[in-house]
Write a structure and sequence with these properties.
transmembrane helix, about 0% strand, mainly alpha, 14 helices
Length: about 425
């Protein structure tokens, strides 16, 4: 399996996930306008945070170590038993915490205690989401890209049906509820597909505490948890700042452009995650690692430039199609956002070396430092440029992050 074939299958899966996400955004834009889209962003940030925490943040760790141990059945069995134990314990803990603080979360994120019941549903769903994460990570670790794509396509189609039904019934509340239910419906597809795979063993569903493997996963998951915690929390802080300074309608414009950016970049980030994380984790030779990174830039960077340019040229049409005529002021925000997207992908390719090689301390420090610098830049640039300053902050911060990653990878390669 090479990056081109992996990219093809991941593109199919991403297209299905993207369609499901765009259906949600379109329905919310119809029912609640820019303000509703802003609140949708807040709830999706909470969902992405809890979805990662549901499994203890070890999905990337499972991918890495399955890729390393797949030729060693004994160590693989120990790893997966420990991983499932770890994931289920973490999901129970996070579910209990979300139940306890559901009202406070609803007030903090959505300014409405009526959404507390929705957060309670999300809390109860943590166990199922953790199992979905575990299944997908094991399949990804075996680099079974076709099976992974099949699960994502069928799961996304089920999610679309759920979103349309619940949104027509309960409007904004129903659309948010469908985001949770749709995650659980992936089990309906994922479990049978995994069960029929040639590498499935019943031992993969055993629970067992293994100190060595748990410590390996815990050390690795610190990186994932840091990224998962910092990014949504910073985005929440940015939305709160923009809402306070400019109003929720302006937040809706910022959120709309950010969602378009996230949507088309999914095609590239999915391919990077599905192919490069297990691939880089299994490579130990310097020349092979350099070759993989060169291939990444040869295929992925031109793709992101073409996609970003296409979105910019079609920005008026994209905004009307995905949202409504009310979002026309968002068109002025695309330029710096799309430029930042190109730099973001260039930096992500290199940052996966830190993940794949478990550079825990360096990764955690860099995530915190660049999250803080992004927030500081948003405060500074929006004070001077207004709403578009948030996009300038995004591009400037990723430019600095790219320079940092170049230094990290050069140092790592020099030590091999």
């Amino acid at each position: 399996m090479n990056i081109v074939r992996a990219g093809f299958y991941s593109a199919l899966a991403t297209a299905a996930r993207l369609l499901a996400a765009l259906v949600v955004i379109k329905l919310v834009a119809w029912f609640a306008g820019p303000e509703g889209v802003g609140k949708l962003g807040q709830f999706m940030s909470l969902m992405s945070l809890l979805a990662v925490l549901a499994g203890g943040g070890i999905s990337a760790g499972i991918v890495k170590y399955v890729a390393e141990y797949r030729e060693d059945p004994q160590r693989l069995a120990r790893l997966l038993a420990a991983a499932l134990w770890y994931a289920l314990c973490a999901s129970v803990l996070m579910g209990c915490l979300a139940l306890m603080f559901s009202r406070q979360l609803a007030l903090w994120l959505l300014d409405d205690p009526a959404y507390a019941g929705l957060i309670r549903v999300l809390a109860v769903a943590q166990l199922g989401i953790a199992l979905v994460n575990y299944i997908l990570a094991v399949i990804n670790g075996f680099m079974d890209v076709r099976r992974l794509a099949l699960i994502q396509v069928l799961g996304s189609l089920l999610s679309i049906v759920t979103v349309i039904g619940l949104a027509r019934w309960l409007h904004l509340y129903g659309a948010l509820l469908a985001l949770i239910v749709g995650q659980l419906l992936w089990l309906v597809v994922g479990l049978p597909a995994w069960w029929r795979s040639p590498y499935f063993r019943r031992s993969m569903l055993r629970l067992r505490f293994d100190r060595e493997m748990t410590l390996r996963l815990a050390a690795f998951s610190v990186m994932t948890l840091t990224a998962a915690l910092v990014s949504p929390l910073v985005n929440i802080a940015v939305r709160d700042h923009l809402a306070l300074q400019l109003g929720w309608q302006q937040v809706g414009y910022w959120q709309a452009v950010s969602k378009v950016s996230d949507a088309y970049l999914l095609f590239l980030t999915a391919a990077i995650n599905i192919y490069y994380l297990p691939k880089l984790a299994s490579i130990r030779q310097r020349d092979a690692l350099v070759l993989e990174l060169r291939h990444a830039y040869r295929y992925i960077l031109p793709a992101v430039v073409v996609l970003a340019a296409s979105v910019y040229l079609l920005r008026d049409w994209v905004t009307r199609l995905l949202f409504s005529a009310d979002f026309a002021p968002a068109n002025a925000l695309y330029g710096p956002q799309l430029a930042g997207d190109v730099v973001k992908i260039a930096s992500f390719i290199l940052s996966y070396v830190m993940l794949a090689k478990a550079m825990t301390r360096l990764f955690v420090v860099s995530e915190c430092v660049f999250a803080a610098s992004y927030l500081a830049l948003v405060y500074a640039f929006t004070a001077h440029f207004g709403l578009v300053g948030a996009m300038y902050a995004f591009a400037a911060n990723y430019l600095a992050y790219l320079a940092f990653n170049v230094l990290v990878v050069r140092r790592y390669l020099g030590g091999l």
